[in-house]
Design a protein that fits this description.
Number of strands: 10
Helix content: 10-25%
Distance between the termini: 14 Å
Largest sheet: 8 strands, mixed
Strand content: 25-35%
Low-confidence stretches: none
């Protein structure tokens, strides 16, 4: 069984973006040390269009070969004219409104996203499934998430888009590791208690 990992950036108070989902204030913390961590440990989480200009296009996938993201996350790339933001992985976009994919390498999941993710997890393979966001999709898939990798940046938003857009439910995870960075960022990894 492959793991579904929610790999997400958030503020200290647990928001992944402002009320409209904008998280651009967090980009300032992707300094040289943090970028080296990403390229070494999670290279596939860097979008293809960002990898190419940096000469990182040939980095092999270490943890994931499949990405699932929500429509709002995908729209960030679409607004820039990028229809295949993670061309180095199999790409799925969960959307009830985007019926036709703008790219042959991106599959739209319009119905039963939980069932589709379960099928992806049941596939054979050494690499897992990267849940990129967003909040509503993470809330819908909470029972399927096996691992959380939370990049926490030293900012307080006060309000905004929560990590999980779902109703109240206590779900236990076990802390596996914490990595600290000189700029105040943390990366915490949690495993699902089953």
């Amino acid at each position: 069984m492959r793991k579904l990992t929610y790999f997400i950036a958030c503020s200290i108070d647990g928001f992944i973006g402002d009320p409209d989902g904008d998280a651009s204030s967090m980009y300032a913390f992707v300094d040289e040390e943090f970028f080296a961590f990403l390229t070494t440990e999670y290279p596939e989480t860097l979008p293809t269009h960002g990898r190419r200009p940096l000469g990182l296009d040939d980095l092999p996938n270490k943890r994931f070969d499949t990405i699932v993201q929500g429509r709002a996350s995908y729209d960030v790339a679409l607004r820039e004219g990028i229809t295949s933001p993670y061309a180095h992985m199999r790409q799925y976009v969960a959307s009830r409104t985007l019926r036709t994919s703008p790219d042959p390498d991106v599959e739209i999941i319009a119905e039963d996203v939980v069932g589709r993710v379960r099928a992806l997890k049941a596939e054979d393979g050494d690499l897992g499934v990267y849940l990129c966001g967003g909040s509503q999709l993470a809330g819908e898939l909470l029972d399927e998430i096996d691992e959380l990798v939370i990049k926490t940046y030293p900012q307080v938003y006060g309000s905004g888009m929560p990590m999980f857009g779902s109703g109240f439910a206590i779900t236990d995870f076990t802390l596996e590791s914490v990595r600290t960075f000189k700029n105040g960022a943390l990366v915490r990894t949690y495993a699902r208690k089953r």
